[in-house]
Automatic annotation (TrEMBL), chain A:
Entry keyword set: Cytoplasm, Exosome, Nucleus, RNA-binding, rRNA processing
Compartments in which it is found: Cytoplasm; Nucleus, Nucleolus
Organism domain of life: Eukaryota
Organism: Limulus polyphemus
Keyword Cytoplasm attached: yes
Statement: the UniProt record of this protein carries the keyword Nucleus: yes
InterPro entries (UniProt xref): Exosome_RNA_bind1/RRP40/RRP4, KH_dom_type_1, KH_dom_type_1_sf, NA-bd_OB-fold, RRP40_KH-I, Rrp40_N_euk, Rrp40_S1
Domain K Homology: 156-203
Domain Exosome complex exonuclease Rrp40 N-terminal: 31-67
Full protein name: Ribosomal RNA-processing protein 40
One Pfam family, short name: RRP40_S1
Gene3D superfamilies: 2.40.50.100, K Homology domain, type 1 (3.30.1370.10), Nucleic acid-binding proteins (2.40.50.140)
Family to which the UniProt record says this protein belongs: Belongs to the RRP40 family.
TrEMBL record, chain B:
Subcellular location: Nucleus
Protein name: Exosome complex component RRP46-like
Family matches, as Gene3D superfamilies: GHMP Kinase, N-terminal domain
Similarity remark: Belongs to the RNase PH family.
Underlying gene: LOC106462153
Main location: nucleus
Alphabetical UniProt keywords: Exosome, Nucleus, rRNA processing
InterPro entries: ExoRNase_PH_dom1, ExoRNase_PH_dom2, ExoRNase_PH_dom2_sf, PNPase/RNase_PH_dom_sf, Ribosomal_Su5_D2-typ_SF, RNase_PH
Species in which this protein is naturally found: Limulus polyphemus
Pfam families reported in the protein's UniProt record: RNase_PH, RNase_PH_C
UniProtKB/TrEMBL annotation, chain C:
Keywords: Cytoplasm, Exosome, Nucleus, RNA-binding, rRNA processing
Domain (Exoribonuclease phosphorolytic): residue spans on this chain: 15-147, 173-237
Principal location listed in the UniProt entry: cytoplasm
Family named by the database record: Belongs to the RNase PH family.
Organism domain of life: Eukaryota
Record has RNA-binding as a keyword: yes
Gene encoding the protein: LOC106476491
Name of protein: Ribosomal RNA-processing protein 43
PANTHER family the record matches: EXOSOME COMPLEX COMPONENT RRP43, EXOSOME COMPLEX EXONUCLEASE RIBOSOMAL RNA PROCESSING PROTEIN
InterPro entries: ExoRNase_PH_dom1 (IPR001247), ExoRNase_PH_dom2 (IPR015847), ExoRNase_PH_dom2_sf (IPR036345), Exosome_comp_Rrp42_subfam (IPR050590), PNPase/RNase_PH_dom_sf (IPR027408), Ribosomal_Su5_D2-typ_SF (IPR020568)
Compartments it resides in: Cytoplasm; Nucleus, Nucleolus
């Protein structure tokens, strides 16, 4: 059996206990991801989308979403909305704005805090995500290093896409970003909250990357490959035709 | 019993058609047409809540129903209330405390069965938004004609001429009644007959929901 | 196990109902209904109007329910809330569905018709306003006497005579409301404020004396199995009998 499976379309209220017991062997505890809930002995779907399975024991529902609900550990792009002396607030596209402490940057001390401005973009990690509390972001990893986190340069281009598209392009099996990079030099930061920041050498290339990502939403992996190869060969016209299909 | 089944078979609903995510800005949207009755709905959520509407244990579920012409009056408020309570029963509102889920319904065209179409359209918009739900809901409309016959999913003209008019909403797990609203007077047997006819027709609506979702994700399923 | 409610009633028992008719002297008809602590006043006033061209000779009957801040702290001053508007619509639906007042009976002569305003005010809100409001509306309409209007043939002058005519009420719709806590479990009739507030769902069944149903209103909430629905209809039938009996006694006492 394959390592990953896009099993079938499920709708809220469906019970998939039997289906799962045929998929996950008894040696493992099944891990339920988003869109699934356990009611006593039954596993019930709560979102409509595709039931996905990853070896050996992960099951979740991939659905179309536009509104972000914070999850601990996810990487997001926030826009600074208000500035305080200790903390700043960032809009991460969720129901609540998130808090980001100025001390949670690499090397920050009480005396030496990063200089953030309203409107700046930060790539941060969700530290606290509870339905009863406002989300909290950090820009350092557990070793106190920034890694790739921090303030994004002001030169790029930020756009918003459905959350499922971000998950799709970030999936290791998706060739899009890698193939694009072979032809166009560009930087990309994709947040789980549906915000994507890109920066290429020219405006034309930035827009090409933007279009390629936007159009990838409704494409099969094969179609993505075709689009990528057309971009790769510099065939702008053909690319456009594929995109508009 | 047999004759009843035979009668059910002759009852059909008007053609259902829908488009999901037809609006780009809302988190979820759907336009649903049931025959010539068309309702557009859009949903935002979970978003920030107005302080006076904040609930500590669950999301506030707000509905705005916009009639085709004029301002909303008493009949629209009743409709709004029925739609809200029906869909709130299917949403897992306790997952988003101190938030708000806003649903906007716009009547586009009314040719009978408006309340049912509103509920179906709202349900599809919530599905599109990827909000967590306990189950789905399907609403159906039926009338009893002056001759005493049951007519499923009537047009506006048939609805106005009818002796009694029923709207039912069913949930997708056990197909039990979530909502019932009626007009005109009728006997208990007539009521039960309409209920059963609507219930069996609700399967077609649920099939339609599945078909829509299937079409949407068709490219992403392994074959 | 017999479940007892906070006020000691069993699940299928309603609270005590008191009806007082004709209590407002300035109205054409009026009634005061108490259901437990829930208190509803209903007054019928009328004015002369011209009928609509699309239904000539048909009068108007407008039911309006007000839930002022006086009756419960949940209600705020200002325009009518969605709850009061939807109950008003529910009451209007009952009048049209049951045909208890036939609009053509409100015609006077030619274009001239009665426009009756049935205004219902809740004085104290302790749950189940719907049942009490339907009862108050019915009692007030049964009690309504309209002055006889004559239009002179010569100059079209309208004369209001001292003589009063009783408004014909053709049927007696009575509503019985149930709430339940879980799907189909713990069904209770005639909910108090707390029971209504905590309910998972509410169901209002309106019946006429000839046994026909007028409205089966279940605005969402948790799903209800058919067996429970049938049980509720049967219970509503037996409980409505008490209400019809009460209404009959009231009208008999008024006559004597």
């Amino acid at each position: 059996m394959a390592n990953r499976l896009n099993c079938r379309v499920v709708l809220p209220g469906e019970s998939i206990s039997n289906f799962i017991s045929g998929l996950v062997s008894d040696n493992f505890k099944t891990v339920l991801g988003p869109g699934l809930q356990r009611h006593s002995d039954e596993i019930v779907v709560t979102k409509c989308g595709i039931l996905k399975y990853k070896k050996p024991n992960l099951v979740w529902v991939e659905s179309h979403e536009k509104r972000y609900v914070p999850v601990r550990g996810e990487y997001v792009i926030g826009i600074i909305t208000t500035k305080g002396s200790e903390v700043v607030r960032a809009d991460i596209g969720a129901g609540d704005s998130a808090v980001l402490s100025l001390l949670s940057f690499e090397g920050a001390t009480k005396r030496n805090k990063p200089n953030l401005q309203v409107g700046d973009l930060v790539y941060a990690r969700v530290l606290v995500a509870s339905k009863d509390m406002e989300p909290e972001l950090v820009c350092v990893n557990s070793h106190g290093k920034s890694g790739e986190l921090g303030v994004l340069p002001s030169s790029g281009f930020l756009f918003t896409v459905p959350l499922n598209l971000v998950r799709k392009i970030l999936c290791p099996s998706c060739p899009l970003l890698k193939t694009l990079g072979e032809r166009i030099p560009y930087e990309i930061t994709a947040g789980a909250n549906g915000r994507v920041w890109i920066n290429a050498n020219t405006i034309q290339n930035t827009l090409l990357v933007y279009n390629a990502i936007s159009f990838a939403e409704h494409m099969t992996p094969e179609e993505v490959n075709i689009m990528c190869s057309e971009i790769l060969h510099g065939n702008q016209e053909a690319t456009l035709v594929t995109m508009l299909k | 019993m047999l004759s009843d089944n035979k009668e059910n078979e002759t009852q059909s609903i008007r053609t259902l058609s829908a488009e999901l995510s037809n609006l780009s800005r809302p988190d979820g949207s759907a336009i649903v047409a049931q025959g010539d009755t068309v309702v557009q709905s859009a949903v935002y959520g979970p978003v920030e809540v107005r302080p006076n509407k904040e609930l500590p244990d669950k999301a506030y579920f707000d509905i705005v129903y916009k009639p085709l012409t004029g301002l909303p009056g008493c009949p629209e408020k009743l409709r709004e209330r029925v739609i809200r309570n029906t869909l709130e029963a299917t949403l897992l509102v306790n997952l988003h405390p101190r938030k708000s889920i806003n649903l906007i319904l716009q009547e586009m065209q009314n040719d009978g069965g408006l309340l049912a179409c509103c509920i179906n359209s709202a349900c599809m918009a919530l599905m599109d938004a990827g909000l967590a739900m306990k189950c789905l809901v399907a609403a159906l409309n039926a009338v009893i004609t002056t001759e005493g016959d049951v007519l499923l999913d009537p047009s506006l003209k048939q609805e106005e001429e009818a002796k009694a008019c029923f709207t039912f909403a069913f949930e997708s797990i056990n197909h039990e009644v979530i909502t019932s609203n009626t007009q005109g007077s009728y006997s208990e047997t007539e009521f039960k007959k309409c209920l059963e006819i609507c219930r069996s027709a609700s399967m077609k609506v649920f099939d339609f929901y599945r078909e829509c979702v299937q079409r949407r994700f068709s490219k992403e399923i392994d074959r | 196990m017999v479940l007892e409610r906070s006020d000691g009633r069993d699940c299928w028992k309603t609270r005590r109902t008191i009806i007082n008719v004709g209590s407002i002297g300035t109205a054409y008809g009026s009634a005061l209904v108490r259901r437990g602590k829930t208190t509803i006043v209903c007054g019928v006033k009328g004015e002369l109007a011209n009928s609509r061209p699309e239904n000539p000779g048909d009068g108007f009957l407008v039911v309006n329910l007000d839930l002022p801040p006086l009756c419960c702290p949940l209600f705020k001053p200002g325009p009518p809330s969605e709850q009061s508007q939807s109950i008003s619509q529910f009451l209007n639906d009952i009048v049209t569905s049951s045909g208890c007042v036939v609009l053509s009976d409100l015609s006077i002569e030619g274009q001239l018709v009665w426009c009756l305003f049935v205004d219902i005010i809740c004085l104290e809100y302790d749950g189940n306003v719907i049942d009490a409001a339907v009862l108050a509306m019915l009692a007030a309409l049964t009690n309504t006497k309209l002055p006889k209007i004559t239009v002179s043939n010569d100059n079209g002058e309208i004369k209001v005579s001292e003589a009063l005519e009783i408004l014909a009420v053709k049927s007696q719709p009575v509503t019985t409301t149930f709430v339940y806590q879980q799907d189909g479990g713990h069904v209770m009739v005639d909910p108090s404020f707390e029971e209504e507030y905590d309910a998972a769902g509410i169901l209002s069944i309106t019946l006429q004396e000839d046994g026909s149903l007028v409205k089966l209103y279940k605005p969402g909430g948790l799903q209800l199995p058919d067996s429970v629905l049938e049980q509720c209809i049967a219970k509503a039938r037996s409980l409505s009998k008490d209400m019809w009996h009460l209404l009959k006694t009231v009208s008999e006492t008024v006559e004597t």
